[in-house]
Specification:
The structure holds two protein chains of two kinds. Helix content of chain A is 51%, strand content 4%. Chain A contains 20 helices and four strands. In chain A, β1 and β2 form a beta hairpin. The two termini of chain A are 62 Å apart. Chain B is mainly beta. In chain B, the strands form seven sheets. Chain B has a four-stranded antiparallel beta sheet, with no helix packed on it. Classes of the chains: A mainly alpha, B mainly beta. Chains A and B meet through α1, α2, α3, α8 and α9 of A and α1 and β17 of B.
Chain lengths: 457, 360
């Protein structure tokens, strides 16, 4: 069977779990006791057995999966789109009408997963049959396909026509009802596998994904290492989520809303203006967040600036500057590494340095040793030491300080602004300046770099 | 049989034995590891969460629709300014939008199709993207009408298969990439130098996320081998691995505290893995959800998990209770990418229906 110009190579059947799941659903829908109510459907003069109505399908899905009707209609629509259920009338469009419209379940022979990928030769025969039967009235896109295939499989065209005539002859010998059903089944299969232009192609895939090559050696190494690691009890870990979520809940705009309003809902960007990265008067929620964790404080440029002031008063500002310099080294350009390492050494680590940081002797020794061959992680130990010092000592004192308490008391809670009722008096949405337009912030210290790097409002 | 053939046959036999014995050793070690992990699992998340107040009714709607891509949207990322986004599509177009006004600010056409990865630089002054070209390129953003964005393009990463994901680290000067060649890599943007590579996945790596930790040293990746792996950026070693999904992992995202991460997979489930407990602690699934989850992200507090699916819907999960809070309809084809904005006021979804939607 020749493969064709159709969808790019996708996954083999085994790796399309959603198809197997859909198949399980339609099989249980056809269960004689628990399945959808079957009836015989009259179409003109023919009677088709085992038909179901669109509304019965939707109701069954609603009950079986305990979902809303909207969701059930969506699920039903997906089953029809993939050709697992087909409409008996107007089989041109694979949509689910939640009314008396009759549908039938596709025969497993024509399931997407069974006969996949669809073969060009089979499509040629199908189109040839249509052509012969309706005396050349194929729809536009089918005509195009037909012509293309005729050129492509020209050498086997006699075979195609012969097969087509044979199948038509065999079909004539069947009862009208069966003939109709088989035609519907076949048509549905091809609507799924060769969709008309404009219809979504449900079988389309991302570019081919590779199959798995087991790496036993890696797994063995990893398992050996992992067996020795310390783990924490689930109860402890899970409690941590509860406290994290409850602490952060009021700060989560999608959970608790935000004041004055959510810009996306009210079309008013006041919330962003009030919470700009560097703003003179931070909101109360923002100042509260500085107390959640040291990382939270450092990540906020305003918080970090106040913390720097506080450290200044305690004559330990060089700790934070050192930490910032180390960050710049870690995330800086490779070419800058030697220069940055040297600058940090001169300013913070050398004996008699202008802003000497107090690291324990063992870490200092290790660091100085490492400086002989500078790389971007050479200051990691020293940086961690200073970070923990700030986190365990200066940070808790900052939170208890009058400075912080004052900031918290001063910080305001914005008033709520409701969305405007009349849409035509909506404020025009202003385009804030793109960060790409603004000059990069200038830094005062020699080795210090832009902290958050998120631009100036 | 000639002596040479006999030798080759003997070697082949040894190889097979070695492969078989390696496999059984790996299996037995994995079993032991699972036993160890199970010993400390004394309670389930939904049990602990019983005393948490249930969430109210959720009404989330599409607040902005971004139209302009001529083909499937494959990836998007937010700028730190909370309103601009970059998006990439199948036809090679990469667009930067101010999604608040829905204006397009920049557009560049890549020389390849299927641009599956894109990222905004922390400074907001550049974007990175790549796909079937096997590379990750960085474009500085310029407003100069006379400058062609493509002219300043810098080719940074080179893989031997498609680029599936990319992310800047804490600065504009380093990029982390994931590829269909089964590896992740850390690159220096200016020189294009490979700083570290990460080997261990047995198949395509499809996604990655950097850990929001204080020491900023790890990241997680997910792949077609159904594994999620946590890596030490400095040493290149895998420090933790989880293999409980039944199919490809399309998306991984850290929980805001950094102590856990969520994954979305073709097996139609999302799962939560705790790094301290070293195990899977929750599964977010429903019988009526049949299609794969293509991308996941947490709300700011970590209480909500938003997941985009291949059946065009977005499901919103209560992370603690494990229940599905809401289902959002709107897209007319697969949801391929989903990210919550940096300040948590909204999330953006991109779809194969050529559009992006911002929801709040």
């Amino acid at each position: 069977m020749a493969a064709g110009p159709a969808p790019p190579p996708g996954r083999p059947r085994a790796q399309m779990p959603h198809l197997r799941k859909m198949e399980r659903v339609v099989v249980s829908m056809q269960d004689p006791d628990q399945g959808v109510k079957m009836r015989s459907q009259r179409l003109l003069v023919t009677v088709i057995p085992h038909a179901v109505t669109g509304s019965d399908v939707v109701q069954w899905l609603t009950q079986k999966f305990c979902v809303s009707e909207e969701e059930a209609r969506h699920l039903g629509a997906v089953l029809v789109q993939h050709g697992y259920i087909y409409p008996l009338r107007d089989p041109r469009s694979l949509v689910l009408r939640p009314d008396e419209t009759p549908y039938r379940f596709q025969t497993p022979y024509f399931w997407t997963s069974t006969l996949w990928p669809a073969a060009e030769l089979d499509y040629a025969i199908y189109l040839a049959k249509k052509n012969i039967r309706k005396q050349g009235t194929l729809v536009d896109y089918e005509k195009e396909y037909y012509d293309r295939l005729h050129t492509k499989i020209n050498h086997a065209w006699d075979l195609v026509l012969m097969q087509a005539r044979e199948q038509l002859r065999a079909a004539k010998q069947r009862r009208k009802g069966d003939r109709l059903v088989i035609a519907c089944q076949e048509q549905t299969y091809w609507l799924v596998n060769r969709p008309p232009p404009g219809a979504p192609s449900v079988l389309e895939q991302s570019p081919g994904r590779g199959s798995c090559a087991a790496s036993h050696v890696h797994m063995i190494e990893y398992c050996r290492r992992a067996l020795g690691r310390t783990r924490v009890k689930s109860s402890v870990c899970l409690e941590a989520y509860l406290s994290f979520c409850s602490q952060r809940g009021p700060h989560d705009p999608l959970v608790s809303g935000c004041l004055p309003s959510n810009p996306w809902i009210s079309d008013n960007d006041a919330y962003w203006v009030m919470n700009a990265p560097t703003v003179v008067a931070p909101t109360k929620l923002r100042v509260e967040r500085w107390g959640f964790s040291f990382r939270e404080l450092l990540e906020d440029p305003v918080g970090r600036a106040h913390f720097m002031d506080f450290l200044g008063k305690e004559f330990s500002g060089e700790n934070l500057s050192f930490w910032e310099a180390c960050e710049e080294l870690r995330y800086g350009a490779q070419a800058q590494v030697p220069t940055l390492v040297d600058a940090v050494y001169q300013q913070f680590l050398a004996p008699g340095a202008a802003r000497w940081v107090n690291i324990d002797s063992r870490t200092m020794e290790r660091t100085l040793e490492g400086l002989r061959q500078p790389h971007r992680y050479v200051l990691d130990d020293a940086q961690l030491h200073i970070y923990m010092l700030m986190k365990k000592d200066s940070y808790p004192r900052f939170l208890k300080s009058d400075m912080y308490k004052g900031l918290l008391a001063e910080a305001g809670i914005p008033l709520e602004t409701k969305k405007r009722v009349f849409p035509f008096s909506r404020r025009p949405r202003h385009s804030g300046p793109s960060p790409a337009l603004l000059p990069a912030p200038v830094e005062p210290t020699a080795a210090g770099g832009p902290g958050g790097g998120d631009g100036v409002a | 049989m000639s002596p040479r053939h006999r030798q080759m046959a003997t070697e082949a036999l040894h190889e097979n034995e070695t492969l078989a014995s390696l496999k059984s050793e790996a299996e037995s070690l994995k079993g032991k590891l699972e036993e160890e992990r199970a010993k400390l699992h004394d309670v389930e998340l939904h049990q602990v969460a019983e005393r948490v107040e249930a969430l109210g009714q959720f009404v989330m709607k599409t607040r902005r629709t971004l139209k302009g891509h001529g083909n499937k949207v494959l990836c998007m990322d937010w700028c730190k300014d909370k309103r601009r986004i970059v998006s990439s599509s199948q036809d090679g177009k990469v667009i930067v939008w101010d999604s608040f006004t829905t204006n397009k600010e920049h557009a560049v056409t890549m020389p390849c199709t299927w641009v599956m990865a894109c990222a905004y630089a922390p400074s907001g002054c550049a974007i990175a993207c790549g796909g079937l070209d096997n590379k990750c390129s960085v474009y500085p953003l310029t407003f100069d009408k006379n400058e062609n964005m493509a002219a300043k393009k810098k080719s940074v990463a080179m893989h031997t298969n498609y680029l599936s994901a990319c992310s800047f680290t804490n600065s504009d000067m380093q990029i982390l990439t994931a590829s269909g060649d089964g590896t992740c890599a850390l690159w220096d943007v200016e020189s294009g130098q490979l700083l570290q590579s990460f080997h261990g996945h047995g198949a395509d790596v499809l996604c990655l996320d950097l850990a929001p930790s204080e020491t900023g040293n790890t990241f997680v990746s997910g792949g077609c081998d159904k594994k999620a792996m946590v890596w030490d950026m400095r040493s290149g070693q895998c420090v933790q691995a989880f293999e409980t999904h039944e199919s490809d992992i399309n998306s991984v995202r850290y929980y805001p505290s950094g102590d856990a991460f969520a994954s979305g997979s073709d097996d139609a489930t999302c799962r939560l893995y705790d790094l301290r407990a070293d195990r899977e602690v929750a599964i977010y699934s429903k019988e009526s959800i049949i299609f794969g989850a293509s991308s996941v992200d947490f709300s700011l507090s970590g209480r909500l998990l938003f997941a985009g699916y291949n059946d065009y819907t977005i499901n919103v999960w209560d992370v603690l209770k494990g229940s599905r809070v809401s289902i959002l309809f709107g897209h007319e084809n697969r949801v391929s990418t989903l990210r919550v904005s940096p300040d948590g006021t909204a999330f953006c979804s991109g779809s194969w229906d050529h559009t992006l939607r911002v929801w709040a």
